[in-house]
Each structure stands twice: as C-alpha cells, then as structure tokens.
Amino acid sequence: MARTPVAHMQAVEIDEPGWDPRDAVPPAGRPDGLRLRRGHVVVALVGVLVLLVGTLVVGAVARDRDEARSDRIAAIPGMLRPLSTAPAELWRLQVPMVDGGLLAADGRLVVLHEQGGAWQLTGHEPGTGELLWSLPVVAADRAGFEGGTVTCPTAGPDVGPLVLCEISGSTTTYAQDGAELATPTSQVVAVDARTGTLVASWDVPVQVLELGRVDDDLVLAVAEADGHVRVSRVVGRTGEVAWTYRSPDIMHSLSIFRQATLRVGTELVVIGGSATIVLDLDDGRELLEGSAYRTVQVVMVGERFGTWTAQAGGELWDRDSGRLFSLPGLPVRLSAQDGSTADVVISDLGAELAAVDAQDGTPLWRIPSQLDPQLAAGGGFLLTGPSRFAVIDAGTGQTRWTVSLREPLRWRPLTDGALVVGPDSAPDGSDVLVGRGLDDGARYWQVPVPDGVQRVQSVGGHLVVRTWRELLVLG
Question: Other CB atoms closer than 10 Å to residue 4's CB: what's the count?
C-alpha cells in the first residue's frame, strides 16, 4: 500500500515556469511544509486522494464481501446471520405465538396473527419493525361460525418475493330442510412480499393434511375418501400441478388413528403413515417404499437419506444409485448444517454417538454420550441435553468444550457459524442469551431476554425471541 501512491505521484507532472529545484530547500527556521510550491501541493494532494480512494475502495470491497458471506449463511436453514457484536432489541410486536406465524420474504419479516376477528398478514422492516403493509386473509375460525385457519409454510430462510399461505376451513351449504352441511375445502393464496398485494388464489377441492414449501412451489398431501394419500407438487402462483403421486396402500384412517404425515426437504419428500415412502422432489418418482405396518425411520442427509429398521439396521441411500452402505444407526436429524461436516454422517445410538465417512461408510469414531446432536457448524457438532450442551469435533469426536447450566435448557441453541447462541441464567435467576465461541466455548457476550421465552429461532437469519404474547427481533 505504501508504494502505490508514490508511483502515482511520479506520473503527475506539473510544469511551472521559473521553478528551480533549489527552491525546494527551505530556509533556516522555516518548517518544510511552508515552502511547498503549487506543483508540490497538487502532487501531495493527489497522493492523499489516492490513499483515501484506495482505502474507501478496499473498505467497500470488504463490506460487500462480508455482506455476501452473511447472505450465504443466512440462506442456510436454521443458521443466524453473523453477529459481530452483542445483539440488542430492535423492536417488538404484541402478537400471540402461532406455529408457522413468522417468515422472512424478500428482505421483510411477515407476521401471521389474529386481529379484529380475522387472520392478518403484515409485512415489517426487519431493522425497525416499521409496518409496510397489512392484508386480511380470512375470518378467524370460531366455534359455530364460518371461518378458517391459515398456514404459511417456510423452511426458515427467506422464501423470496412470494408468500404462499394455505387457508383451511369449511364452505357451508344449506340443505332444503335447513340443516347445514360442511364440506372441507382449502384455498391457497399467493401474496407479493414487497407490497402485500394478493397475486393469485386457487382452490384445493379436498382438505390438506400437511404441506411444505420448496422454492415457489407447494407440496401438498391430501387424504382421499378411501384412505389413500395423494401428494402433489404444485406451482404456488398458479395452482398448476407439476407431478402427483398416489400411495399404493391405505395410509390414512381416522378410525384406526393412523394419521398420514409429510416432510419436505431440499431434495426429497417423505410420507409417513401405515407405510413409509420416499419420493424424489423433482419429479415425484418413488425412491423407497417400506412395507405396510413395518416401522421405517427416515432422515434426510443432504441429497441422500438414511433409514433404520429393526430387520436391516441403518442404511444410507442415494436418489439414483439406491442403497450405498450400512450405518451403525439412524443418522441424526440436524436443525442446521453449514456444510463443514458434509464428509461425516453421524448416528445416535442411544448411549453412544458414531460417525462414518460419508463417501464409503468407513467408521471414523464412536464415543459414549447422553447428549443429542442438534446442529453442525464450523467443523463440529453441537450436542444438547436437559441442562447441558457441548461441541465435539466432527473429524475425531473429541470434545471441544461443554457447559452445564443452572436451570434446564429452555430453548435450543442456535449458531451463526462462529458463535453458539444459547440460553443461560443470570445470578438472580432471570433468563439471558449468551454468545459462546464455537471453537472454544469462550463467553463473548450476554444479553437479557423477557420472562416466559418459549422459543428462540432464526427467521431468514434474523434472531427472533418468542413469548406467548410477544415477538422480539434482536440484531
């Protein structure tokens, strides 16, 4: 950096008639700077400007690079946007907690809540909480009255410019004798996340059991009258069906308390019920079907998936190649993964944890542990227990650090890739949020949180604290 401005100054040539190099020698008793002629002043100013511009450019590039890195981390499900300092409360909203009632969309935080007898969607500026728009969706469900419930699915990261919500309720028809007959129906609405404008809506002729979102599409599971389950990937903006799969066997029956389930990952769809079925998310083709009434546990492992049955034990599968190799147990379902442990598959064996090489199944390590793996970041696994959490190295299984709490773990820790953001108690017993180094467990900061915290979560990378009655955004 020191040599670059000199080169620029040599390239600047000022021709001032009558100037003699001897004039550059200051007379006795005069400071050097007072004898600079106009040409020298220009050269010096050019050098200073080059330094300033260079510093600004480098600073801007560094900021852009940091912002791009933050955006990449925030786009990973369950990961927080990197916290450079202790977070402080940015804003709060008095809204009752609703499952699935908060999502990030096109840089905004969208809140689903009940207000004035209706379900409302409101868009907020994440940094200030400023209300940007409000949209009534449907009358709130009331016993004895028409109405509905609303679900806006999200995997955690920013869903983009389109908010998709499913409204489930009843369309009431009146028979000739005056009796009311309710036919279950569902409707999907697509809302512009920037303006709150209703973009499109379309009907689902039967009641949706469960749904998930991927990109701008929805994956819907509906129960047919005969108990078969139909799963469809549907374009969220239009309702156009991309593919449909119908279970070969009966999977849903209220008479035998068999409720079909649906899990949607980034590459796979898992249907549960009287059987377990794994589908390819892209085209709906069947990758695995467990025998009816045979317990098959499935965990998605990136683009692959792991299974466990009492008969075959643990196995790892590929979408195209089928079964790859045996596993010591069922892989752990992690809440966040930053990709740093992609070469390791970890299984929870109850009293032990075991890891194998993700490429060929070669055993790497096995350790006794009563803690449960929760997330993977920074080349390590975060483990949690009733009142303790720890970080172990993914390559060796060795413990990096462990923390015992005075009180039971009230909510699950999060990470931004460098810190573990988890719960603790102050000496007076009040709840606090603590940031500890992912590598060494060093305590970097501590901030208070309200009483009655039910959940601390990452929404589009934003740190959100939920009580039964309030939503707080920290940053």
Answer: 11
Rounded CA-CA distance 84/90 in Å is 15
What are the CA-CA distances from residue 72 to residues 66, 67, 156, 409, 460 (Å)?
Answer: 10, 9, 13, 29, 11
Query: What number of residues does the chain have?
Result: 475
**Distance (Å, rounded) from C-alpha 380 to C-alpha 161?**
34
| Token pair 């010096």: residue | 44
Per DSSP, what are the bridge partners of residue 315?
Answer: 307, 326
pLDDT digits 0-9 by tens, 236-269: 999 999 999 999 988 887 655 578 899 999 999 9
Strand 336-337 and strand 372-377: the pairing is parallel
Q: Give the residue carrying structure tokens 């040539």.
A: 13
The DSSP letter of residue 43 is H
The tokens for 134 are: 């409000």
Nearest to residue 114, comparing CAs of 131, 134, 133, 85?
134
The answer to whether residues 247 and 271 touch, using CB atoms and an 8 Å cutoff, is yes
| Whole-number pLDDT of residue 180 | 45
Do 120 and 137 touch, CB atoms closer than 8 A?
A: yes
Q: How far apart, in whole angstroms, are the C-alpha atoms of residue 129 and residue 470? A: 13
- The C-alpha atoms of residue 50 and residue 72 are separated, in whole angstroms, by 33
**Rounded to whole angstroms, how far apart are CA atoms 471 and 467?**
7
